[in-house]
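Input/output pair, single chain:
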Amino acid sequence: MKTALHTVSYAGVWPGQVSLPLERVVEKAAALGFDALMVMGKRPHASVLDMSEEARARLRDLMGERGISLACIAGYTNFTGGADRPDVPFREVQIQHVTELARMARDLGGSLVRIFTGYQYEGLSYDQQWGWCVQAIKECARRAADKGVTIGVQNHHDIAGHYESLRDFLAEVDEPNCRAMFDAWSPALHGTDLPAAARALAPITVQTTVADYVRRPRFRYVPGLVNYEPQTDVVRAVPMGEGFIDYRGFLGALREGGFDGTVAYEMCAPMRGGGSEENLDRCARQFIDWMHGSGFRS
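Output:
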């Protein structure tokens, strides 16, 4: 398996996290020993509003000079949004955005764009929201196909969040260039058997994104009972191999199922040790060491 660094890790998206320009992240990925980049398809890194043809050519040349390939462009979508204002073509705008991301991926020498389905909103049926996502992603895939680009659906949002639902969802989209970007984070929180899920999704998975976490129990004090009532656990990011997610089982099962794609590492939540460049570099190196030590680095 090859490794990619998700540039969101150095984008300043959470308080205290260092923000580096995209060119610096290319240099950093090479210095840290990554094979590729997963490029955040929005500001401050690679927004379609800012990435002119000249900027794309410069970035592609820099990546080539440093021996870094493009794993994918990371798009950010929510195809169920905007239902409160049906007069605004919210899904059409997103479909066009994904089309432009596909063009950018091609121009940077890549062939994959990551997207999400949609969050579930109250007052609308699940099936209706499912259908909106299917229709929109089908059109995204068709528009990306003539650019030689695959659309990868990551199991991040509410619609088709469970691994079996994601498999059903992609079967309903039914486009040859629409595949899974199946990661372990959500099924681990669901309490799913990770190796079983990975084996089931491996044949249709083109990339996986990894990050490790710990659970921390929460309780609310109830004065009248002189006791505490349990609340939903909080989840905190930690370096690879220090959390509760069974990545050895997950990646091993993906490999058993035939997956030999890219494993992208991301730091897009407050990390143990803070968001300084030094700490993020340390965590990124630990991921590379973990991949080598676990036998997953090709």
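The chain has a mean pLDDT of 97. The domain at 2-293 is CATH 3.20.20.150 (TIM Barrel).
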